[in-house]
């Protein structure tokens, strides 16, 4: 791709992100979110894309729906997809969202009673260059509450993986402990969460849509058997297993 078309594409995508960003709801909208034990929450979703090794175009788009609070798999959908949009840092959602949204819409059409009440996304939400990561994109387009949970720190808006950040991580004593990820503007874009007593490495939680950051952090912690929330972990495991079965020679 030559420089000019890439520049045009970036401008178009920036404009689209800015437009959709206006639709993000950064507060709790559901009754279950306001309950101390999330009473009324019965189904949590997780999405992920897994790629064939050495191939950044063909992937397995995965949706899982788990029961809550038991975290047992109620539904799974594995679909091979071909990504057409190029990868450009900060615009991952334009590559991945269409296929994840398709999976949610298939479920809504075929088994609406299993539609998740909240979706966990392997990636960021507000904690993003322009406060509109994958979790926001999917949330706005699906209309569902979404939570972004990233395994690695995206160094944006004045948040850096520096000595201060490392000392804050070291101060997280137990599962459920967290500290805010505060932008240079002073806005809290997410929180670093020690998700499990067993894992000293935090995850980075930010809201996608229709949920507050504190509720997102609390919910993420309740969904963690290990470091990564179970809906995302199951989506990752099942998409990788699908590729192993159907593309054994690719060594995923």
TrEMBL record:
Pfam families the UniProt entry points to: Endonuclease_5 (PF04493)
Gene Ontology molecular function, alphabetical: DNA binding; metal ion binding; RNA endonuclease activity producing 5'-phosphomonoesters, hydrolytic mechanism; single-stranded RNA binding
Biological process per Gene Ontology, one example term: DNA repair
Keyword Ribosomal protein: no
Essential cofactor(s): Mg(2+)
Location(s), subcellular: Cytoplasm, Stress granule; Nucleus, Nucleolus
Keywords from the named record: Cytoplasm, DNA-binding, Endonuclease, Hydrolase, Magnesium, Metal-binding, Nuclease, Nucleus, RNA-binding
Cellular component, GO annotation: cytoplasmic stress granule; nucleolus
InterPro entries xref list: Endonuclease-V
Chief location category: cytoplasm
Claim: Nucleus is one of the keywords in the record: yes
Subunit structure: Monomer. Interacts with PABPC1; the interaction is RNA-dependent and stimulates ENDOV activity.
Role: Endoribonuclease that specifically cleaves inosine-containing RNAs: cleaves RNA at the second phosphodiester bond 3' to inosine. Active against both single-stranded and double-stranded RNAs. Has strong preference for single-stranded RNAs (ssRNAs) toward double-stranded RNAs (dsRNAs). Cleaves mRNAs and tRNAs containing inosine. Also able to cleave structure-specific dsRNA substrates containing the specific sites 5'-IIUI-3' and 5'-UIUU-3'.
Family assignment from sequence similarity: Belongs to the endonuclease V family.
Entry protein name: Endonuclease V
Organism: Dicentrarchus labrax
């Amino acid at each position: 791709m030559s420089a000019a078309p890439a520049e045009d594409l970036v401008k178009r995508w920036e404009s689209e992100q800015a437009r959709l960003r206006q639709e993000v709801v950064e507060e709790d909208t559901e009754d279950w979110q306001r309950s101390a034990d999330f009473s009324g929450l019965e189904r949590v979703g997780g999405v992920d894309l897994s790629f064939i090794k050495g191939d950044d175009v063909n992937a397995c788009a995965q949706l899982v729906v788990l029961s809550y609070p038991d975290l047992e798999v109620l539904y799974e959908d594995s679909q091979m997809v071909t990504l057409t949009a190029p990868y450009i840092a900060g615009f991952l959602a334009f590559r991945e969202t269409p296929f994840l949204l398709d999976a949610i819409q298939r479920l809504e059409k075929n088994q609406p009673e299993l539609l998740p009440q909240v979706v966990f996304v392997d990636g960021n939400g507000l904690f993003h260059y322009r406060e509109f990561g994958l979790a926001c994109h999917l949330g706005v387009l699906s209309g569902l509450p979404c939570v972004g949970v990233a395994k690695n720190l995206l160094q944006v808006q004045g948040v850096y993986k520096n000595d201060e950040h490392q000392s804050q991580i070291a101060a997280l004593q137990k599962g459920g402990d967290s500290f805010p990820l505060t932008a240079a503007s002073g806005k809290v874009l997410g929180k670093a969460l020690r998700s499990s007593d067993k894992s000293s490495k935090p995850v980075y939680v930010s809201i996608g849509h229709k949920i507050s950051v504190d509720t997102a952090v609390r919910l993420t912690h309740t969904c963690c058997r290990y470091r990564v929330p179970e809906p995302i972990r199951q989506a990752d495991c099942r998409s990788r297993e699908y590729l192993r079965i159907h593309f054994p020679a690719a060594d995923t």
